[in-house]
Amino acid sequence: MRESRFHVADQTHQAWWRSAAIYQVYLRSFADGNGDGVGDLAGLRSRLPYLAGLGIDAIWIVPWYPSPLADGGYDVADFRAIDPIFGTLAEAEKLIEEAHAAGIRVICDIVPNHCSDQHAWFQKALAAPSGSPERDLFWFRKGRGEHGELPPTDLQSIFGGPAWTRVADGEWYLHLFAPEQPDFNWDHPAVRAEFEDILRFWLDRGIDGIRIDSAAVLIKDPLVSDTYEDNDGIHEVYQSWRRIADTYSPSRALIGEVWLPDHEAFARYLRPDELHTAFNFAFLGAPWEADKLRYEIDMTLEVHAPVAAPATWVLSNHDVTREVTRFGREVTNFAFADKRRDVPSDLALGTRRARAAALLTMSLPGAYYLYQGEELGLEEVEDLDDALREDPMFHRSGGVDPGRDGCRVPLPWSGSTAPFGFSPSDATGTPWLPQPAHWAELSVAAQQGVQGSFLELYCEALRIRREDPALGDGPMRWLESEPHVLAFARDDSFANVTNLGTEAAVLPPHREVLLSSVPLNEDGTLPPDASAWIRLA
Ligand code: NOJ
Hints:
Number of helices: 16
Radius of gyration: 23 Å
Structural class: alpha/beta
Strand order of the largest sheet: 9-8-7-3-2-1-11-10
Distance between the termini: 42 Å
Shape: globular
Strand content: 5-15%
Helix content: 25-40%
Largest sheet: 8 strands, parallel
Bound molecules: 1-deoxynojirimycin
Number of strands: 16
């Protein structure tokens, strides 16, 4: 890889992943190149100029492997191939090359905790007898009860319902997620060797970073304990992965999906010989309230400091309610357990707050992740027909939880009617989930170059974020402010002020307003639910 292709920012910051703005591509819903109604690699390649223009540093592509899609592709049938619905391995290699040529790094998603029940190893395990080496790669166990008719333990799956499923010969296997996602046995050396090989397979193809799915739950003994998070032995796995990443030049980045409420336990994954960064879900889940956000920001920085890892800042992803909808509700935090249907949302208020939240988030110290469509101000699509919903979280909760389909609806690119340029004009298929009619106004074409649009706010913010050396990784200090205002400086010159109150806020003395989420009041004060980037006087 030729480093010179990348932005100047990469040379001025210590390592790209410490400061990067990383765009999450949900491939099925990004852009459809072949007209079958499902996003694919051809679509993504054709939209690389858009991504380069947006000013992001890297893309993270969610699983692109062959999959029966029992969990949106997180049920992987073959970790070394591309699902034909998305394209071919040769196209993935082309994509990596073209992205690099456009100054964009590529992160792929590895799912080490489980595979699809269609994966060759699991199929062999099903065909093999109890106690066989094939079954040893997973968690097969005898059931309880007189005839083994009860699951080995009462452990519940993260998606609801029992975490054990019975097979034809009467044994049960463990799945922390859906039954179509059997858990690997990470105590087995063959599982470890297999994943180390898979890592090399992708890193050898020029992949710049790996997003590690469900990174904290690999090690478990489900018969001894119901605790599957953060068990002993997990760190050895990532130390060995880090050694592999470090054999490449420059070293490739390891990014953990680590949902752990215990901050110290979280930070242990980020020690210098383990993962480079991990997603900041505590910040993502915080409500639109100054004291709670301030607490999460302080806590994040405190937790990362001893391990010298950069923080990450995330407002949304393919698993959570889009923030335009979330911030327009009465309760503005995010928690999986509380997700319900038909919760009213004031989308105009949510949009206004999401604009402010973007400026707050992009100016915090560290890396920043944005989820496709976030830059367009898309809302959660809540009125999908139940028959179209695919998410096991919806089905396994008996429909109590609306599931995650609503944040995965195909993007609107252009035009006044669906598919809004998502598929080519001669497409034979319709988008795999229907797009709301009013997305005509939110399409890329409808917003591009339009002053004050959501997209233009993102472009401008990403441009400044990239050019100003004070942004990205580095220090921050709080400025004095009213309790409902968050104000901090990144150096002597750059400051962000976000007003979460109901009254206008006075900005600290400044030379210039670089960008604001809404126009300032005539007297120069910052209106409620707004954020501004300023040059301090
Ligand atoms: C986390 C992924 O982000 C989510 O989409 C998936 O359902 C689970 N891990 C299981 O792989």
